[in-house]
Amino acid sequence: MPRKVDSHQRRTRIADALMRVAAAQGLEAVSLRHVAAEAGVSAGMVQHYFRTKDEMMRFALSVVRDRTQVRVTEAIARLGAEPEPRLLLRTMITAILPLDDESRALGRVALAFLAYTAVRPAAGSALREDTAEMTGFVAGLLDVADPERAAAGLLALMEGLGVHLLGGHRTAGQALATLDDHLDRLFR
Q: Which pLDDT tens digit goes with each residue over 51-83?
């Protein structure tokens, strides 16, 4: 009897390899051949699961999004049933910021994808949807004159802090102090 193949598991294995290549060498180093070598599979297998590089990139981005969502959900769950909005936002943003090895790896890949989608707008539709959803969620927690604008500013701060952390321009302590200062202004 033939062995049953879990195609999602294989696609995820390939996406993990893509993320390792991208995190170590940047997205410009990502090719079907490099990803196949990193995954320990043939280039033909990669092409079987992903017809194009863009398709492979979109799937890998969905894996990054899913893993980040798990980190955020677990961090928020530790807060209890009804955390105050400021604590909820700080916890969510802290779970996303590249403050540990796992989140730094995810952050490097996410940053590379952001650059990738800047020149391939069609590949960025999922990122735009995520941003709109997150902006709406954050705006719903803010009691300010223009919650959408304040939410967009907070998310831009988060992304900027992430870039500064990844580039070594800020320490974790400095980034968290900046975040706390901004949250203090929002929640006066």
A: 887 788 888 788 888 888 999 999 999 999 999
pLDDT digits (tens, 9 = 90+) for 8-28: 888 888 888 888 887 778 777
Q: What is the pTM of this model?
A: 0.84
Instruction: Show the domains of the chain with their CATH numbers.
Output: 7-186 (1.10.357.10)
Sign for the CA dihedral angle at 104, 109, 113, 115 comes to: positive
Residue pair 72/111 in contact by the 8 Å Cβ criterion: no
Tokens standing for 114?
């952001």
Please check whether residue 138 is in contact with residue 89, taking contact to mean a CB–CB distance below 8 angstroms: yes
All residues at 6 or more sequence positions from 68 whose CB lies less than 8 Å from its CB, including other chains: 95, 96, 106, 110
Task: For residues 84 and 167, give the distance between their C-alpha atoms in angstroms, rounded to a whole number.
Answer: 32
